[in-house]
Each structure stands twice: as C-alpha cells, then as structure tokens.
Amino acid sequence: MTKYIINTPKKCYKRKITLSLLKVFSRARFLIVAGLLIIISIGYYVQLIMENTVKNYKIRDLQAKIEELQKENRRLEVASANHQSAVNLNSQIQSLGMVLSDKVEYISIFDKTMAKR
Prior knowledge:
117 residues, mainly alpha
C-alpha cells in the first residue's frame, strides 16, 4: 500500500499537467476558430457593402437615363402634335395640290339581305 500512496501524487501531477495543456490547446483552438469566424464575417460584410454600393450606382445611372428618355419622349410628343396640327395638315394638303371637298359620299358595301345556302 505504501507504494500506491507514493505513486499517486506523481500520477496526479502528470495528469494535472496534461489536463492543463489540453485546456491551453483547446483555448487556443477556440481563439483561432473564433478569430477566423470574425475575419470571415468581416469579409462577408465588406463584400455585401461593395455589392450594395455598385447596385446603388447602377440605379442612379438608370434613373438618370429614365429622366433623359422621359424628356425626349415629351419632346417627340410635342413634335408629333405639331406635325398633326390642323395648320400643318392644311399646308401639306395645299403643297400636294389637293383641294377640300364640299360633298362627301360614303359607299355602303353591305346590303340588308342575307345570303342563303
């Protein structure tokens, strides 16, 4: 029994050293994993911000293009209305040598009778 009592403290001491080393290594692993997760999270966040910024620039460019096209559309509508105005049409009619008609006759191609088979 005396041998057992004498050997027990040495074994416990070795066991305490191995347990403390395992704790240190597990803490180091935890810190490394936590650090990597933080770095990956920061990188992902920066990527999202960059994508958002690029999309905002594209949206601004498209909005400016929309405004420009709306102005062009209004200008073309005004030009079309000017070309279709009565004054412009009368001048075009006269330049083509056409005259105004006083009497308009319509041709009816449908009769009131039905075709039978």
